[in-house]
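Lab notebook: predicted structure, single chain.

Context: the supervisor wants predicted structures on file for every construct in the current expression panel, including those that have not yet been purified. This is the next one on the list. No modifications to the sequence; it matches the entry in the shared construct table.
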Amino acid sequence: MASNDSDPAPRPIIGLPTYSERTRFGHWDVDAAVLARTYVDLTERAGGIPVLLPPTGAARPELVERLDGLVLTGGADLDPARYGAAPHPETGRPRRDRDESEFGLFELAREAGLPILAICRGLQLVNAALGGTLHQHVPDVVGHTDHSRTPGVFTVTTVTTVAGTRLAEITGPELKAHCHHHQAIDTLAPELTVAAHAQDGIIEAAETRDGPFLLGVQWHPEENTTETRLMRALVDQAAQYAKERNR
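Prediction complete. Output recorded below exactly as produced.
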């Protein structure tokens, strides 16, 4: 049956890269492609259709062609070789399968003009992919562990946005952010502009100045069950992208 103008717009499809981890469930202890359920739930609450993307080698263009938006999810540290650095003693074991898959996925998504929201590791990946570098251990820089006090527990941090940025338009001048990171942006990639800082000066968000929607945050919006503004902004952009692509 043909659609008409009164039909509701289809919900956009949002890609969510997964981790590749040893995982226990039921009677099983196996290698698995997994992602925290909070990412899925946030995508649903914001009006998107979440699709999980396991790290299966080089990203393929036909995958990106089926997506309307992309969330670069959090997780393990990047391989420092990706931004020309030697490993710090506190840098975690590289997950090169994720690096290969997600750096390629980001490149293809950018070429296609896909809207992108990058979260924690995702922001670090965007910065490295575009020519920036990372602080490999934030406590060495700021002298405290407030960005990641306790393993497995998120720290609520006050973040101040930069006036005139996309982020400030979405969230206002200040917000409480759920953080769990020991790495952060050092040298900002030339294509990015800072969108928010923590009180100690660490860059907590960055975005592109113009062009398709690309916004990265160092915190975890999926951990705040009452907050959907960032994901809703991505979903709105993805819906527009899908509409223009299908004309």
